[in-house]
Amino acid sequence: MSSAERAANLLLELEPEDFRVLLAIELGMANFTYVPLDEVVKYSSLDPSEVEFRLGGLDKRDLIYRQPDPYVGYILNYTGYDCLALNALAKADMLNSLGRSLGVGKEADIFDALTDDGRRVAVKFHRLGRTSFRDTRKKRGYVARRGHVPWIYQSRLAAEKEYQIMGIVHSAGVSAPTPIDQNRHAVVMSYIDGYNLVDIQELDDPPGFLDDILYNVRLTLEAGIVHADLSEYNIVIESDGGVLLIDWPQAVAADHPNAGDLLERDVQNVLRYFERKYQVESDLGEALSLVKGLSGPPPLQEEHEDG
């Protein structure tokens, strides 16, 4: 069972005092590798005996890690952090229940879920602690610019950025998930009904799908954004035949010093995949010119305008 599923199952067992202690540890992790007991007491505003009792219960439920030496200290694990995010989303009348897993990756888990009004959505939990912290800081500018950044805040920053970027590109007409809500490392978005491009055996019209992807890359660029991590692994082919660009936390602004190189890499990744898998040969320079609006109309522009 995943940490998010365990967290969802534990929500009804936990009492308000348990959440106060979890929140106290979360706050303390901004300044301590392991949060000392007296800091947990200070942040929670509970009696020391109550805090020790709650810590024992949270430890038994495997929501925290306890360090005995050289001093007694505590940190959240991902199940504890999931509890805080899910509890906040439930109290905000956003989420009613968590369903099956839709995908597990190096840096995120995605789940089917229902909102309070019965709408089907997807919930993405960012989990940057699964990769090297040093590598994460190197690749992600919003982390590299900060000092002490524990894994929970790296994941939260990734979620905040993805939520913000999805709002920008979705408003610009890019085929991307609709951002609905965000709390800590969790992003609630519209349900993803389809399969990753890499998992599809055959496409009925590979050149048409390639054009559709490039069209969305152009719309993204017109919105002032470069995806910066585009490949067959984060393009979804929806059940209705549309394409969906997902996984936006590494996106950069179009005026970023490396935006040109990142855009070229995105386009090249897509062209190489279609050439290797479907023998669709394309010229990188021409594709980049189309994406940048330097030559001809965007792919599928007439079709989209007529439709």
- Spans of at least 5 consecutive residues whose pLDDT stays below 50 are 131-149, 301-307
Order of helices and strands: HHEHHEEHEEEHHHEEEHEEEEHHH
The CATH architecture classification of the largest domain is Orthogonal Bundle
By DSSP, the count of extended strands is: 13
Total number of domains: 3
Mean pLDDT: 90
**Cα radius of gyration in angstroms:** 22 Å
Q: Count helical runs.
A: 12
The class by helix and strand makeup works out as alpha+beta
- Spatially, the strands of the biggest sheet line up as 4-5-6-8-7
* CATH domain fold name of the largest domain: Transferase(Phosphotransferase), domain 1
Beta-strand percent range: 15-25%
The H-level CATH homologous superfamily of the largest domain, spelled out, is: Transferase(Phosphotransferase) domain 1
How much helix is in the residues? 40-55%
CATH level-1 class of the largest domain:
Mainly Alpha
Shape descriptor: elongated
Task: Report the major sheet.
Answer: 5 strands, antiparallel
Q: Determine the N-to-C terminus distance.
A: 44 Å
